[in-house]
Predict the structure.
Amino acid sequence: MTDPQATEARASFYRAPADARRQDLVAACARVLAAKGAQGCTVRAICAEAGVSPGLLRHYFAGIGDVIAETYRHTGRQVQSALEQAVANAPDEPKDRLLAYLTASFAPEIADGALLSTWLAFWSLTRTDPIIARLHHEIYSDYRQGLEALLDAYRPDADQRLIAIALTALVDGLWLELSLGDAPFSAQDARKLAGQWLDALV
């Protein structure tokens, strides 16, 4: 008779390598998008970057669109996790938590040239790929909802929606300049500007 616990253990054992290989392909896709843009992101390029055969990618993904979409989801989750971790590490005051969320985008792991290049490739696809467009909407909606919740805890009587839109525009612009390199301001300057604009808006 088969031991259910042994079967479950074997399933977990075999699942982990498969998940790791799938994640390796996602990471390779992100690197290809950063280096070659959406136009240069092909099954062959991703597999060459990952050091595997094209057949392996097709085993885990329906095609190039599927792996790019999964890479966008993964990248969005990574960024959101970094923002949430910044909030978790902040002092337990509503304004401090809000500023931590806003200014986490200026940290080196997010204000990064390779991440910017990957993100620009995703943006370029939003006009032509409905799945990427939907993911773009979801990722930015999640960001704004998190921002609105923190704004509500800080100033419950303010118009969180419009303030969140304004602050998002500021953060995106500063993040873009920092990520490009040689910005005429530092990450510290960016954090200061975010704080000043927050005070002006609320």
In short: Confidence is low (pLDDT under 50) at residues 1-16. The chain has one domain: 4-201. The radius of gyration is 20 Å. The longest helix spans residues 4-36.
